Each structure stands twice: as C-alpha cells, then as structure tokens.
Amino acid sequence: MAERKRRANGEESRRRILAAAVEVATERGYDGTSIAAVSQKSGLPASSIYWHFANKEALFEAVLEDRFEVWMRSVTAPEGSSEMQAAMMLASGTADAFHEAPEFLRLGFMLVLERRPTELSARKRFLDLRDIGRQRLADFAVQLAPAADPAAVDRLLSYAIAAADGMFLAKQMDPGLDLNELFDLHAQLMIDALMRLGEAR
C-alpha cells in the first residue's frame, strides 16, 4: 500500500512538473525556461524536479513527448473504421490535437528555428517524434493506395505535412480560423490525390 502511494505521489508530481514546464516554456521559450521558474510555477522544490529529470533538456524532451502522446491519441481511428472513415477521423483528430496540445508544434518550432552551434537533444527529439508521426501517415497511405508509386506518395506526404504546419501557423495569426473545416478539406484533397496516384500505376 505504501509503495503504491509513493508511486502515485511520484506520478502526480511528474504531471505537475510537466504542466508547469509547458506553461513556462510556452511563455519564455527554451532559453527563458529554468528549473527555478518551473519549481515556482509547480509549487514543487527543484530537488523534486531533478529527481524526475536530469536537467532542463531532459525536462524539455519530456514535455515534447507528453504533448506528442496527446497528438497520437487524437489521430487514432477506432477499430472497424473503413479506410475512408479513418482518413477523415485522422484529419479531424489532427485539428483536435492542435487545440488540445498546440505546445508540441509551438515549442518544437521554437527549437527548430533557433540557430545554435550545438544541436539541443530536445530539438532532435522533436524531429524524431515528427518522423514517428510521418511514418504513421505513410503506413496509412500504403493501406489506402497500395499500388501508388512510393516516391510520389512520399512527395505528397511532405506536401500534406507542410500544409498542416502552415495551417497551425495561420491559426496563431487568425484565431478565428476553423481548423476542423480546413482539415476536412485538406484530408479530402489529400485522399483524392492519393487515390489518383494509386490509379496511375
């Protein structure tokens, strides 16, 4: 019982730290984020943060991973869905993820756009997570259009992801944009293009 309570307390502390780190990082960026600031925001001592995370980079990586998990849950279609239903649900799920965990892209873009003499491990982790998401899209594309030329599908995926990134940035500049509507349109266009690629072989 005592061990379960300690584990639960540890998990709760970790959640509080991550939530505080998301707030601080979103406001201040990587350089402006400090263990002291996260400690103050979370109400937990710095020693508690260091117990969970070796340093600020490890904490930043954990924040990205936490936000990415929200994305992955949002873009998973239930079993039994048709391929077309799954495609549309993936699109609406991506729009939902933009609302529920915008920090994944916001913080990731900050890391990618900053020029540094040495690459941060958090920046590399963001890019690795993006690759995982891209692979999920690639696997789905193969199921939807198995006969399509792989090189053509790869180009289409690059375009689709770049367009999604652009929609995220557009939303930051115009909060009135309806992302669900845009992603439904985006998905339909990408599905149509993918099906044409499959028919062209």
Overview of the structural elements:
The chain has 201 residues and is mostly helical. The chain folds into 2 domains: 1-53, Homeodomain-like (Arc Repressor Mutant, subunit A); 57-200, Orthogonal Bundle (Tetracycline Repressor, domain 2), CATH 1.10.357. It has helices spanning 2-32, 35-42, 46-52, 56-74, 83-100, 103-113, 121-144, 150-173, 179-200. The protein is elongated. The N and C termini lie far apart (62 Å).
The chain-level mean pLDDT equals 86
Low confidence ranges: none
Rg estimate, integer Å: 19 Å
Q: Can you count the helices?
A: 9
Give the second-level CATH assignment, the architecture of the largest domain. Orthogonal Bundle
What's the helix-strand series?
Answer: HHHHHHHHH
Quickly give the structural class: mainly alpha
The main pleated sheet reads as:
none
* Secondary structure tally: strands: 0
CATH topology value of the largest domain: Tetracycline Repressor, domain 2
- Bin the helical content: over 70%
Shape assignment: elongated
Question: What is the number of domains?
Answer: 2
CATH superfamily of the largest domain: Tetracycline Repressor, domain 2
Question: How far apart lie the N and C ends?
Answer: 62 Å
What percent strand?
under 5%
**What is the CATH level 1 assignment of the largest domain?**
Mainly Alpha
Descriptive tags:
Tetracycline Repressor, domain 2, 0% strand, Arc Repressor Mutant, subunit A, 9 helices, 201 residues, elongated, mainly alpha, 2 domains
